[in-house]
Amino acid sequence: MIPSINPPGDRTIGLLAYLYGPGKREEHVDPHLVASFDGMAPDPGRDPSATLKALQQLLDQPVQALPKHSRPAKHVWHTSVRTAPGDRALSDDEWAEVARRIVAATGIDPGEGQPGCRWAAVRHADDHIHIVAILVREDGARPDDFRSGKRAQAEARLIEKELGLHQVARGDGTAAQRPTSAERHKAERQGRERTAREELRETVRRSVAGATSDEEFFDRLTASGLLVKKRVAPSGDLLGYKVALPDDRNKDGEPVYYPGARLAPDLSLPRIRERWSRDQPEPLPPAGPPTPAAARRRAAAALSEAILVIHSGEDAVAAAHIAATGEVLDALAKTSAAHTRHELQEAARAFERATRSHIRATRGHDRALRQAARELVRGGPALGRGEDGATTAMAIDMLFFLITAAVHWHAGKGHAQQAEAAHRAAEHLRVAYRVAAEEPLAVLHQRGRSLALPLLQRQADAVRAAIPELAEQVLAEPGWPALAATLADAEAADHTPVSLLADVAGRRELNTAESISDVLMWRVRRMANLPAHPYPEYVAAAGPKRDLAAPRTTEALGINASNGPRRRG
Fold first, then answer.
1. Closest Cα partner for 266 from 327, 335, 191?
2. Among 569, 542, 547, CA closest to 558
């Protein structure tokens, strides 16, 4: 349940006319009063003798009773209270109780004999009500509505629990500003899926990813097609910026600009500059930017190291790594192939909320992650196949584990909204991984199935020796053939499979993995510096893409989970 308090207004009759009217798209159905300050206010929706003017005059009486010079210029308080999608429809009586509790909690009408303001609650849809109140009490004083937004949210959390509704995670004031109803309606009229504010926030965030200077940041904004205005001091110093979409105009035909700080708290110019103020980016090699595949391998390595920091580092340093993880995810989404791009973009949008909390990030320690984001952007778009596609799967695999670590970190700090956002991002990454990994895993799967039995036996023995507690589970998984092929490749490259497996298994937890064998396979390939997509000659021979969810048994591969490879009788 979300209360959304609007800035105070000056025309009670105008707001009532909107609430009782048809709406901008005929969306207001059966507008009527569900509660009021005295329970007897006229209802222009269902009482033919009642008028909007009569309701307005009743509500405004305490204002009109004041001398003109004492009347507040903005005296109309207004909030909507909306249930979550999927919640049951509340009855009018339930909404009436919600309204009474919200005005009491916010100080508009505290009850218990204390002076209060006049108010009315109007319902014109199943999922929400609007509360209109006058910011002058019956005794002529102003109500104690300080921090009314936070107080309304706290009361809503209690109401949700009592009414069995979806329980919204508690906020902490670090979320980006939500689009207003006017912005949402404008986006609908223009046929946009998202509001201008949301599109701008995402574009600015991607432009920041891996940037190292004001000049590079603004060049990226311009290249992305945004209109940019810079705020410059008389001294010539750059103080801030505003951005607009070229086709988002006001009634006068002028572009609608948004300051960075109004898009998200960490997108003001001073906060953006903190990201690169302590950066010392590594110089690019003489050959120029890395290939997309090389950038993804380096990103996977940086993400792997960051997991340790989040698990055991200082809070401010861990917060910096989580924020920089958002940059890596933005950069990966921006440069990935079409078949993974949508889920990666959704993951990035979800994770954006997890990058901010009241624990202020200490920048500089996140240099490796920011460098990884920079290389992803400079490496350019990746193909969805071959080494590009396989290293994308490798990077997503590591991102999933890092973001899962961020879920636990935020949950441990009581950051409910951030933990929920990170969890949603992880779910999108699961889907993106399955798509990205399907083709390279099919190649490795076919390679593993074609290994000679003595070689397969040796790799199975290596698994039992290195990770005895997980061995039988790994050998029974659908991904075992791909891991077996990878261990054989590592052995051919003069690595010792037992030592390599023990090393990669001991570095990170594996409990959250859907497929332990897949995770170990990617880690071994990265640690042993093996190609992420080996044996291109096997692509044609791999046949139909394997179903990653299809159950396969060790028996089908000639493996006995207890005794290793067996010969078919």
1. 327
2. 569
Rounded Cα gap, residues 36 and 118, in angstroms? 8
pLDDT of residue 276: 84
Q: Where are the alpha helices (DSSP H) in 313-366?
A: 315-335, 338-351
pLDDT in tens, 381-419: 999 889 999 999 999 999 999 999 999 999 999 999 999
**Contact status, residue 441 vs residue 520, Cβ threshold 8 Å:** no
What would the two tokens of residue 563 be? 């005794």
CA distance 465 to 497: 10
Task: Burial-class residue 37 by CB neighbours within 10 Å (0-12, 13-18, 19+).
Answer: buried
- pLDDT tens digit sequence for 243-287: 999 999 998 999 999 999 999 999 999 999 988 876 555 555 556
Q: Are 348 and 303 in contact (CB under 8 A)?
A: no
Phi and psi (nearest 5°) for 529? 55, 40
Main-chain phi, psi angles of 523, to 5 degrees:
-65, -40
How far apart, in whole angstroms, are the C-alpha atoms of residue 390 and residue 435?
Answer: 10
| 419, 403 contact by CB (below 8 A) | no
CA distance 150 to 115: 21
Evaluate if residue 349 carries a pLDDT over 90.
yes
3-state secondary structure of 33: strand
pLDDT in tens, 211-253: 999 999 999 999 999 999 999 999 989 999 999 999 999 989 9
Q: Is 135 helix (H, G, I), strand (E, B) or coil?
A: strand
Contacts of residue 73, Cβ cutoff 8 Å, sequence gap at least 6: 10
Q: What would the two tokens of residue 546 be?
A: 């394997």
Q: Are 34 and 111 in contact (CB under 8 A)?
A: no
Q: What is the CATH number of domain 2-163?
A: 3.30.930
* Residue 59 exposure: Cα atoms within 13 Å on the Cβ side: 30
Cα separation, 315 vs 325, in Å, equals 15
Evaluate if residue 554 carries a pLDDT over 70: no
Please give the radius of gyration of the chain, using alpha carbons only, rounded to the nearest integer.
29
Tell me which residue has tokens 């700090």. 413
DSSP-derived 3-state class of residue 491: helix
Nearest to 199 by CA among 172, 174, 227: 227
Q: Is the dihedral of CA 305, 307, 312, 317 positive or negative?
A: positive
Task: Give the Cα separation of 100 and 84 in Å (integer).
Answer: 20
CA dihedral 281, 284, 289, 293 (to 10 degrees): -70
